[in-house]
């Protein structure tokens, strides 16, 4: 038995001993994505209230980076084609199980990508997102849906894709936001701050 499986069994034994936690952890494992949606909105609102246009670029990239990371993860997961522990192991506590491949975890990829982007928007928001991401990763192991390596790889992959993508598309996003700042969409960007177009002339 490898280390990854031993860690999974340790977490699963903890799940067996804490039935009172099952509704809370299962709920977060399944619907915690709503928390990350709220964090994305918070990131946009923070950037909107800030005079630093670079943060708005990062906030605009955050949901796009998440979608890119998930899109890239799909062929990787299909190629690896790892059987989830809830289907490969017997006599374990299973609170959630899916039929698709488990490595890397989609939920962890999503959480890692959003966290990396929100770190660029605001450090404190990035820390909150990181805590939520680790909790999401742990919950996916707790419910029996993933091995620890699935969620660790997912967090790292999501963060790496998000950061790399941001560096690549930042000039294009800044240009698009400059165009939007000259339109009625300006109120979505920074209602009280100078426009990006005005800043570029100073």
From TrEMBL:
E.C. code: 3.6.1.27
Designated name of the protein: Undecaprenyl-diphosphatase BcrC
Membrane topology: Multi-pass membrane protein
Pfam families, per database record: PAP2 (PF01569)
Molecular-function GO terms, alphabetical: undecaprenyl-diphosphatase activity
Domain named Phosphatidic acid phosphatase type 2/haloperoxidase: residues: 55-166
Protein's cellular compartments: Cell membrane
Entry keyword Ribosomal protein: no
GO CC, any one term: plasma membrane
InterPro entries associated with the record: PAP2/HPO, PAP2/HPO_sf
Chief location bin: membrane
Keyword terms of this UniProt record: Cell membrane, Hydrolase, Membrane, Transmembrane, Transmembrane helix
Residue ranges crossing the lipid bilayer per the database entry: 28-47, 125-145, 151-169
């Amino acid at each position: 038995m490898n280390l990854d499986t031993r860690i999974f069994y340790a977490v699963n034994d903890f799940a067996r001993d804490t039935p009172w936690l099952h509704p809370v952890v299962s709920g977060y494992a399944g619907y915690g994505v709503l928390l990350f949606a709220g964090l994305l909105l918070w990131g946009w609102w923070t950037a909107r209230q800030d005079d630093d246009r670079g943060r708005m670029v990062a906030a605009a990239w955050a949901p796009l980076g998440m979608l890119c990371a998930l899109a890239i993860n799909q062929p990787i997961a299909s190629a690896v084609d790892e059987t989830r522990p809830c289907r490969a192991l017997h006599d374990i506590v299973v609170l959630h199980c899916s039929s698709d491949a488990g490595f890397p975890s989609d939920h962890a990829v999503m959480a890692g990508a959003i966290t990396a982007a929100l770190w660029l928007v605001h450090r404190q928001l990035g820390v909150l997102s990181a805590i939520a991401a680790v909790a999401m990763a742990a919950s996916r192991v707790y419910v029996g849906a993933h091995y620890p390596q699935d969620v660790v790889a997912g967090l790292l992959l999501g963060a790496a894709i998000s950061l790399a993508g941001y560096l690549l598309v930042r000039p294009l996003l800044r240009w698009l936001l400059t165009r939007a700042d000259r339109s009625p969409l300006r109120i979505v960007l920074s209602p009280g701050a100078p426009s990006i177009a005005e800043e570029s002339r100073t």
